[in-house]
Amino acid sequence: MKPGWRVIDTGCLTCSQNIALDKALLLACRERLIPDTLRFFQFTAGCVLLGHYQRAEQEVRLDFCQQQSIDINRRLTGGNTVYWDGSLLGWEVVLPRAGQAAANQADTLRYQIAAAIIEGLSQLGVKAQYQYPAAIEAAGRQIAWFSGTRQGTAFFCQGYIRVSDSDVHTLLRALRIPTEKLVNKEVDLFKQSLASLASVLGAPPPPAVIKAAITAGFCRIFQVAACEGKMTPGEEAYYQTSCQEVAARQWVFGSRSVSRPAGYQLRSTLKEQSLITVAMSVDSSRQRIDAISLTGTFEAYPLEVISRLESNLLHIAATPEQIRNTVNDCFRECHACIPTLTADDFSNTILKALEKLQFLNWGAGPAELNELTVVGNFAIQKIFEQPLTTLLIPYCAKDTECRYRYREGCGQCGRCDVGDAYALAAEYGLAPITIQNYEMLEENLKALKQAGCKVFIGTCCEAFWVKHARDFAEIGLPGILVNVDNSTCYELGREQAARQGRFENQTKLKKQLIRQIVNGMFNNRDASYG
Q1: C-alpha neighbours within 13 Å on the C-beta side of residue 235
Q2: Residue 186: per-residue pLDDT
Q3: How remote is the C-alpha of 235 from its chain's centroid?
Q4: H-assigned helices in 374-437
Q5: CA-CA distance, 313 to 331, in Å (whole number)?
Q6: What's the rounded Cα separation, in Å, for the pair 54 and 437?
């Protein structure tokens, strides 16, 4: 049997104290000052924990958290934002692994850790399964979650077990859910997707019993013995230093904004199992990248690979070959592992942002590039070469008192922007379709594709596109989406009503931008066939 693991239980700490202790353990592990360690922990109050590579303003309803005195902090590990309340029991392991910095080592360790948690749950009478990369489920419902990273040869992994029913009401209001997370699930289905020891067993076991079972699970899978331990002086010193660092606003909210008035501001998002968002600025005269930020719901091994990648991309030529070579070199040199994502995923997302510069040729201004999104995984140039037949318009742009608000058609009365959109469609011979809900959108896109439609133009909020990015990709019909003005249903917390066609506010269309793109597409085709 291998040398024993140290088990420490730090009880309830504040949000920043727990994050500081995470950092202290990882630093001490990296310096080989401590043995393999399993820690149990909880929080003194409900809090929001950002994934390491996320941005708070994109993931958290900051006003609500401030009103409710909900602390926000940033984990060392990547993945989704978590609302952590008293229903969750936290655990983490820190493991020094000499000579195991290869990319595949992270995934091997993930499967071992998942097996350890599943073994621990089985000792409590819960049959669970691992859903790669981060979830552990009981009867198809999430009961546990984990995420990890690496620094040097020190691996760090942490997660939770849901002991009792979570405060879903607060969770949904504190996080921007379901804007980017729920995809096609209704809120009630989200609630039903969560399991707990209490719901599975009828009553939660005592905390000591749960911790003993999880410890036994790790001991069996890793074939080690375990003994209770305490913090070392070295860890305490790291902890005191880390407390100040993780309590700072810069740690929580970061300094990853991208702004340079002289350059083109470009943004692109990839939504697969993990979300990548690239924001970059390209020097308009030298065609070089002079600022870039990579954020998302992914986790990364090692911890610093994303900051290294951002640094390596700075000031390089904004060409596909240079970008791909730089990304591939960084992944190779860092022995990077990013579960569910590859170096090509990052390169393609960056190139998709860069590709938006082509919109300048079709009437868009530099400040409007991020108001446009291409769906269907097609090159922008190729889309502009296709015949445009359809204009999709969201019902939420119609006047709230209009008789056409919740049905197809438009009286073109002048009380909203939709009449102008219908007039534009008539001018260019396009078929206008008012989209009442997501199901109608999906049905129409599939029908258009089957009927031979090559490309569509539509308008919706960016949150809707991000939420349904995978759906658009699976349907496969290429199209151009133009963003809308005003607060959307997602920002107002009314996304479920909107999905069902019952959103009661009114949005405004970017009419001039839509006209410029439509005109550019028709002029391009006329020039091509002339």
Answers
A1: 18
A2: 56
A3: 32
A4: 380-384, 418-428
A5: 12
A6: 29
Q: Is residue 482 classed as helix, strand or coil in its secondary structure?
A: strand
Choose among 294, 419, 281, 431: nearest CA to 356.
Answer: 281
DSSP secondary structure string for all residues of 173-234 = HHBTTTTTT-TT--HHHHHHTB--HHHHHSSPPPHHHHHHHHHHHHHHHHTEEEEE----HH
Separation of alpha carbons 505 and 45, rounded Å: 35
- Which residue has 């070392």 as its token pair? 232
Q: What is the pTM of this model?
A: 0.85
Helix (H, G, I), strand (E, B) or coil at 141: strand
> What does the block give as tokens for 11?
């009880």
Of 43, 37, 34, nearest to 13 (Cα)?
Answer: 43
- Report the DSSP beta bridge partners of residue 338: 341
What is the amino acid identity at position 349?
A: T
CA torsion, ordered 111, 114, 120, 123, to nearest 10 deg: -80
Distance CA 364, CA 372 (A): 9
CA pair distance 353, 318, nearest whole angstrom? 11
d(CA 85, CA 83): 7
How buried is 526 (Cβ within 10 angstroms: 0-12 exposed, 13-18 middle, 19+ buried)?
exposed
By CB neighbour count within 10 A (0-12 exposed, 13-18 middle, 19+ buried), where does 165 fall?
middle
User: Which token pair is 355?
Assistant: 């590709």
Which CB contacts under 8 angstroms, 24+ apart, belong to 108-115? 109/148, 109/155, 109/157, 110/148, 110/157, 110/339, 112/221, 112/222, 113/146, 113/148, 113/157, 114/146, 115/217, 115/221
> Which single residue is written with the structure tokens 């969560």?
194
Q: Do you find a cis peptide bond into 3, omega within 30 degrees of 0?
A: no
Mean pLDDT calculated for residue range 471-496: 71
Eight-state DSSP code of residue 288? B
At 147, list the tokens: 């995420």
Confidence category of residue 76, pLDDT binned at 50, 70, 90: very high
Going by DSSP bridges, is the β-strand pair 37-43/88-96 parallel, antiparallel, or unpaired? antiparallel
Cα angle 397, 265, 263 (rounded to 5 degrees) comes to 140
Q: What gap in Å lies between CA 19 and CA 272, rounded to an integer?
A: 28
The structure tokens listed for 53 are 């590579």
Burial class (CB within 10 angstroms; exposed 0-12, middle 13-18, buried 19+) of 333? exposed
Beta bridge partners of 88: 162
Q: What is the mean pLDDT of the chain?
A: 86
pLDDT, tens digit (0-9, with 9 covering 90-100), for 209-232: 999 999 999 999 999 999 999 999
Sheet with 154-162: list strands edge to edge.
129-131, 135-138, 141-151, 154-162, 88-96, 37-43, 2-13, 224-228
DSSP state of 77: S
Report the half-sphere exposure of 377 (CA within 13 A, side-chain side). Answer: 13
Residue 69 CB coordination number (10 Å):
8
Sort strands 224-228 and 2-13 into parallel, antiparallel or unpaired. Answer: parallel
Other C-beta atoms within 10 Å of 254: how many?
17
CA atoms within 13 A on the CB side of 391: 26
